Amino acid sequence: AMATSVARGRGWCVCGERGRVVSHRSATIARAVVLPPESREEAVRQARTALNVGLGRRSDAKGSSEKSVLKRISRGTKRLIVDFPLQKESPDTVAELASELLDGVTSEKTVLCFGTRGASDSAKALNLANCYHVEESIPKKLKASSLVLVGVDESQAGLLLGSSRWSSVIAINPKGFTEGKLGGTFDTAYQFLPLLVQGFLGFNAEGALLKCLSDSPEGSNWDIFVKDGATFRRVASQATKPDQDELELALYNNVAENNPLIKGFKAVKGMFSKD
User: Which pTM value belongs to this model?
Assistant: First the structure.
């Protein structure tokens, strides 16, 4: 079951494939692993960087591959998802999140469509341009070529995505996108999901699932972390999004080494709040 709680992450480190800290000599050939963010501001920066990379723009990361960028550009229409944890999804917090994530990412040729009228009105109050409720008609005279969907469900998105005018589409916190249908046409640019490993006698351990698109050779991977003391350690990395069984296996194998009294884990939604 999903639960609402708060988890904390820490900055950056260089890890081996199974989460071992590598030597400085080895670090020159290893990728810098992006760790779960320790603040909302850091998460926003991570997500913005991931979006720019997904849209074919070069990042500042060392080891960026021109080939990887050209490969993304050659895909044609780009459809990207950002799944960002919010403690409270009110119209104001949804609009503020869109404003923060899209700063420096979108342009005057971008249309923003919100899943609720309240969020659309809040976005207009923040002076965001070209804001509409998803059920409103977008004027044909508006020379827009990119679309942002905020808190929109799959059926609502399907009505808008039938148009060929969109060269790129970003979905922020989409609702009910299924992998085999509309969601399967999108790539995840950024997702951060805190996890809590529960044990007997009050034992708990923190973990996290993170994907943050980058230009590095492994920049499209999904990483699983377990928290050791004050820092996160990467324990698994794979090209596809791990399912529940894969998450359990990665977390249990590492946490159980220190405490065998493990009974389950749950996703921790709503890490960040503006309050």
Answer: 0.77
**For the chain, what is the radius of gyration of the CA atoms?**
19
CA distance 12 to 149: 30
Q: What is the pLDDT of residues 129-172, one digit of tens each?
A: 999 999 999 888 888 889 999 999 988 898 888 777 898 999 99
Q: What are phi and psi of 83, to 5 degrees?
A: -110, 105
Angle between helix 117-125 and 91-102 (nearest 10): 60
CA 219/CA 222 separation, integer angstroms? 9
**39 contacts: CB under 8 Å, gap ≥ 6:** none
